[in-house]
């Protein structure tokens, strides 16, 4: 692993490069912030928060700020495949003050079907233009799985009637980097659950490129924007885990930072929804929480401007950022200890079997973590 | 000489939609085809799973009306198992529904539909001082429409336009003659478009308070709700109420005002005065106000006859797949539907853009089936819901509709137009916002003596169960149908609002609402078919919802086997 010093130098060099490029929109970030009533001070606080979120030391926050300002040099193409649009919905609900959204818009958004004004022929033209004009330089974000059965015929887009599969392959070729936004694009998601009638696959399975996988149904907007920022800042992907998820966001289990963790360690469990334990905020493991098997930053980042997250609302985590969770973690309101998962059955069985012995549970769960912590460094 | 116009993708909707029309030498639409081009097969996936997971899975049909499917799927299971959930759970579900509507309709009008009404480029030539005065005409207390606000918005957009790089606004149909707002009115609406970005976030937070997150909330289970701590927390309740106030304020001072402004500006525009050519409407009862009392009524209106509303009969619903990419021999009730994919692809032909693959209108051409009520196509959605309640004499709705007609000077007939459909959605939002507080108060009262939020459901695996649920989703009447056998899902079908509206022509040659609404529409420029997009958007398309529809009964799953070496 490289030192922070080397990484910082890489970021500085990248900023140098970006500064030489033409901005794609006339407005500077400064102007946009002013129009949105965001002060320089708000911006610096945001940069510091993003720095911390990316698990970088504080001195990087000037680099984050600079990268945000230069983000308009980076074209973004966002494609919709087999999906429900929940990921885009997640993104447009980002925090107030809406710096995250602002940064997202500041990146030159060349194509996004849910947001763009153009339609039909003109929309398709925008996409073709972006793919050729910015070849080799654009970021490709994909929302949704790629249907592959029947030669991909279960999805066509555009006047030319190309399949999603065709479009993804073409767009992937000229992309500087590819980001799968959400569990469908990353791992196939709900349509890929058994028996997967459309042959839905994650993007990484159909393109011959490294794809960064932002698991989650939907992924938190923080994870989307943080990944964009990392790429803009360093021109490369962050350290990834065994499923190509950024370690800064998916490095810890939901269980590790859960607000109900103390209850788990104390052996205090909700036995049935709505019982006294539920009213008192006891641990949800026995009503099916998959937090011990799920890697994501939900407990620390929460959703919708930190308003809540499923565990706060009394429902266990369903493991939505893990591959094949629709099959592997069902039935969602029962503990998982009863079945195989990722070949770690022995450990998860331990968790289930000794559920009433809190110490043993803790040890079992930590053992799972240590196995997962092994990652693929770039 | 007729000309074919292909519009794909229809952007600013949920999902993937292609619309094709054929215009005559005067550019008047003679034929129209609505085609959904994505199929996901979620009901197949439900087979053999526990009914307890149904809500979480069907929720992923849609990331926009995400909560509607979650609730409807869960309630279909409760109906099948005979589970009676506690009153608090009903109230909490209703409050989440209120939050969803306030979010969904604002996003639809401003961010999805708005650019069909608002010419962004025209706003640049507005006089902000005059625009500020103009805004006062539609509400005594406008929001984000003071001279300073408007000037800042104008400068912001001017900066964008000067660079020639419009970003997400690029290559749209700006300048089309059917845009009717003055530059000042465009500027007001544009300012609200931007303000609404902020407001919709707050509305999503309302849903997240009791739902855990939005989209894809996670606090409903078969038997009740899980967010009991939030319900019992005075701080949380106050948080909801405060956000509600902010959003409601925007709904009244911006959304309502903008629709009144649009009615004045577009009231004589031919392309928005049609668009309701299927005059049959259907809606179900929903939004619990207090024990047993609902905000909107159920019923069916045929042939636009408001003097005659009949009760909604679930047995009258059937789906036809003659022109959908499925094998099927005739109309089928949702409990007995079969759906076997039968993709036939496109046909190459001349279009206004040259040779292109186009739909085979005589054959099969979409992944959406055609639901029919007693054999007839019907429109569902906010317009249908309001018309049914209006015809039933629901006082709140009657006052609200009459109030709008008075404010705009339009006749009742104006409801049966594209403008009316868009206005109805706004009126529904206003009613939901105002009346929804009654639900909130009823819950507080009930909580004084009752903290129950859940009853444990029981499944006897030796028994078979059948059940369904019907609710109003933001896009209209939504129904889910389930069969349970051996303790597992044996059969599942969802008949969703967009399917009702977007379905293809049926075996009798009857068009669904999307297609029928386009017939007779004159296009200013067939290469820039803004009028088509405006009409289609007024239905608020949600294609992922429409095309999940899949039932495995009688189907050979072997047909779905995938060659692992295919790629």
TrEMBL record, chain A:
Please give the coiled-coil regions recorded for this protein: none
Which reaction equations make up its catalytic activity?
Answer: H2 + A = AH2
Question: Which Pfam families does this UniProt record tie to the protein?
Answer: NiFe_hyd_SSU_C, Oxidored_q6, TAT_signal
Q: Does the keyword Transcription regulation apply?
A: no
Keyword set, alphabetical order:
3Fe-4S, 4Fe-4S, Iron, Iron-sulfur, Metal-binding, Oxidoreductase, Signal
Q: Does the keyword Iron-sulfur apply?
A: yes
List ligand-binding residues for [4Fe-4S] cluster 1: 84, 87, 184, 217
Q: Which cofactor does it need?
A: [4Fe-4S] cluster; [3Fe-4S] cluster
Checking InterPro entries in the record gives: Cytochrome-c3_hydrogenase_C, NADH_UbQ_OxRdtase-like_20kDa, NiFe-Hase_small_C_sf, NiFe_Hase_small_N_sf, NiFe_hydrogenase_ssu, TAT_signal, TAT_signal_bac_arc
What Enzyme Commission number(s) apply to this enzyme?
1.12.99.6
Binding positions ([4Fe-4S] cluster 2): 255, 258, 283, 289
Q: Where in the cell is it found?
A: Cell envelope
Broad EC category: oxidoreductase
Domain Cytochrome-c3 hydrogenase C-terminal, by residue range, is 250-332
Please give a single GO biological process term from the UniProt record. anaerobic respiration
UniProt-listed PANTHER family: HYDROGENASE-2 SMALL CHAIN, NIFE / NIFESE HYDROGENASE SMALL SUBUNIT FAMILY MEMBER
Record family assignment: Belongs to the [NiFe]/[NiFeSe] hydrogenase small subunit family.
NCBIfam families from the entry?
Answer: hydA, TAT_signal_seq
Name of this protein = hydrogenase (acceptor)
UniProtKB/TrEMBL annotation, chain B:
Q: Which residues bind Ni(2+)?
A: 65, 542
Residues binding Fe cation, per UniProt: 65, 545
Q: Which reaction does it catalyse?
A: H2 + A = AH2
Membrane-spanning ranges: none
Q: Which cofactor does it need?
A: Fe cation; Ni(2+)
Q: Name one GO molecular function term.
A: nickel cation binding
Under PANTHER family, the record lists: HYDROGENASE-2 LARGE CHAIN (PTHR42958), UPTAKE HYDROGENASE LARGE SUBUNIT (PTHR42958:SF2)
Q: What is this protein called?
A: Uptake hydrogenase large subunit
Q: What is the lineage of its organism?
A: Bacteria, Pseudomonadati, Pseudomonadota, Gammaproteobacteria, Alteromonadales
């Amino acid at each position: 692993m490289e030192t922070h010093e080397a990484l910082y130098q890489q970021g500085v060099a990248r900023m140098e490069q970006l500064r030489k490029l033409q901005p794609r929109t006339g407005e500077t970030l400064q102007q946009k912030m002013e129009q949105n009533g965001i002060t320089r001070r708000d911006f610096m606080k945001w940069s510091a928060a993003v720095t911390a979120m990316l698990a970088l030391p504080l001195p990087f926050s000037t680099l984050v700020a600079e990268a945000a300002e230069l983000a308009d040099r980076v074209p973004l193409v966002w494609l919709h495949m087999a999906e429900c649009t929940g990921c885009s919905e997640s993104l447009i609900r980002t925090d107030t003050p809406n710096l995250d959204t602002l940064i997202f818009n500041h990146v030159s958004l060349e194509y996004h079907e849910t947001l763009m004004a153009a339609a039909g022929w003109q929309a398709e033209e925008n996409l073709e233009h972006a793919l050729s004009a910015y070849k080799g330089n654009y970021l490709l974000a994909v929302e949704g799985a790629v249907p592959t059965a029947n030669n991909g015929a279960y999805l066509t887009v555009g006047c030319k009637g190309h399949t999603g599969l065709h479009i993804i392959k073409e767009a992937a070729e000229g992309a500087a980097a590819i980001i799968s936004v959400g569990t469908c694009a990353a791992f196939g998601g709900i349509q890929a659950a058994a028996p997967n009638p459309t042959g839905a696959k994650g993007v990484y399975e159909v393109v011959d490129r490294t794809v960064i996988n932002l698991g989650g149904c939907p992924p938190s907007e923080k994870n989307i924007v943080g990944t964009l920022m990392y790429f803009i800042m360093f021109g490369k992907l962050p350290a990834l885990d065994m499923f190509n998820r950024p370690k800064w966001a998916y490095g810890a289990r939901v269980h590790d930072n859960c607000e109900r963790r103390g209850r788990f360690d104390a052996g205090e469990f909700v036995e049935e929804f709505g019982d006294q334990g539920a009213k008192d905020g006891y641990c949800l493991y026995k009503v099916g929480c998959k937090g011990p098997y799920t890697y994501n930053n939900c407990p620390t980042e929460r959703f919708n401007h930190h308003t809540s997250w499923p565990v706060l609302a009394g429902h266990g985590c369903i493991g939505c950022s893990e591959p094949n969770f629709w099959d592997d973690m069902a039935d969602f309101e029962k503990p998982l200890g009863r079945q195989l998962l990722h070949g770690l059955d022995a450990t998860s069985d331990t968790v289930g079997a000794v559920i009433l012995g809190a110490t043993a549970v803790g040890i079992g769960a930590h053992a799972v973590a240590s196995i997962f912590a092994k990652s693929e460094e770039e | 000489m007729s000309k074919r116009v292909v519009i794909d993708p229809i952007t600013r909707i949920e999902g993937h939609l292609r619309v094709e029309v054929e215009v005559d030498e005067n550019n008047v639409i003679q034929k129209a085809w609505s085609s959904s081009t994505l199929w996901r097969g979620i009901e197949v996936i439900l087979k053999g799973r526990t009914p307890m997971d149904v809500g979480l899975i069907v929720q992923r049909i849609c990331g926009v009306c995400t909560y509607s499917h979650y609730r409807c799927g869960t309630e279909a299971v409760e109906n099948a198992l005979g589970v009676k959930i506690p009153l608090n759970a009903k109230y909490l579900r209703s409050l989440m529904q209120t939050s969803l509507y306030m979010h969904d309709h604002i996003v639809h009008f401003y961010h999805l539909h708005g650019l069909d009404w608002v010419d962004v480029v025209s706003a640049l030539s507005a006089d902000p001082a005059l625009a500020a005065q103009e805004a006062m005409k539609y509400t005594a207390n406008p929001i984000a429409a003071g001279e300073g606000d408007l000037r800042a918005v104008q400068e912001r957009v001017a900066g964008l336009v000067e660079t020639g790089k419009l970003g997400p606004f690029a290559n749209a149909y700006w300048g089309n003659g059917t845009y009717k707002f003055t530059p000042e009115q465009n500027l007001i609406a544009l300012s609200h478009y931007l303000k609404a970005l902020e407001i919709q976030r707050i509305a999503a937070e309302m849903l997240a308070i009791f739902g855990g997150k939005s989209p894809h909330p996670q606090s409903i289970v078969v038997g009740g709700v899980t967010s009991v701590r939030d319900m019992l927390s005075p701080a949380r309740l106050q948080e909801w109420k405060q956000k509600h106030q902010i959003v409601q304020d925007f709904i009244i001072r911006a959304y309502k005002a903008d629709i009144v402004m649009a009615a004045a500006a577009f009231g004589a525009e031919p392309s928005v005065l049609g668009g309701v050519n299927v005059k049959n409407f259907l809606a179900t009862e929903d939004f619990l106000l207090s024990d047993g009392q609902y905000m909107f009524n159920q019923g069916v209106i045929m042939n636009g006859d408001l003097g005659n509303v009949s009760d909604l009969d679930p047995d009258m619903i059937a789906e036809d797949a003659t022109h959908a990419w499925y094998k099927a021999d005739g109309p089928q009730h949702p409990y007995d539907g079969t759906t076997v994919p039968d993709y036939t692809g496109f046909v190459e032909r001349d279009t206004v853009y040259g040779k292109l693959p186009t739909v085979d209108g005589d054959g099969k051409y979409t992944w959406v089936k055609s639901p029919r009520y007693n054999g007839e196509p019907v429109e569902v959605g906010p317009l249908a819901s309001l018309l049914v309640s209006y015809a039933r004499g629901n006082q709140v709705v009657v006052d609200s509709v009459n109030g709008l007609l008075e404010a705009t000077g339009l006749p009742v007939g104006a409801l049966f137009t594209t403008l009316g459909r868009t206005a109805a959605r706004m009126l529904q939002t206003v009613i939901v916002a105002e009346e929804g507080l009654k639900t909130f108060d009823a819950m507080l009262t009930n909580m004084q003596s009752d903290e129950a939020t859940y009853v444990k459901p029981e499944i006897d695996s030796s028994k078979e169960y059948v059940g369904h649920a019907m609710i109003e989703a933001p896009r209209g009447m939504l129904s889910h149908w389930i069969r349970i056998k051996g303790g597992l899902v044996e059969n599942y079908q969802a008949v969703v609002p967009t399917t009702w509206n977007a379905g293809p022509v049926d075996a009798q040659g009857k068009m669904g609402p999307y297609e029928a609404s386009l017939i007779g529409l004159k296009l200013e420029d067939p290469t820039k078919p803004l009028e088509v997009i405006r009409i289609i958007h007024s239905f608020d398309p949600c294609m992922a919802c429409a095309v999940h529809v899949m039932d495995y009964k009688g189907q050979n799953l072997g047909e779905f086997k995938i060659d692992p070496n295919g790629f």
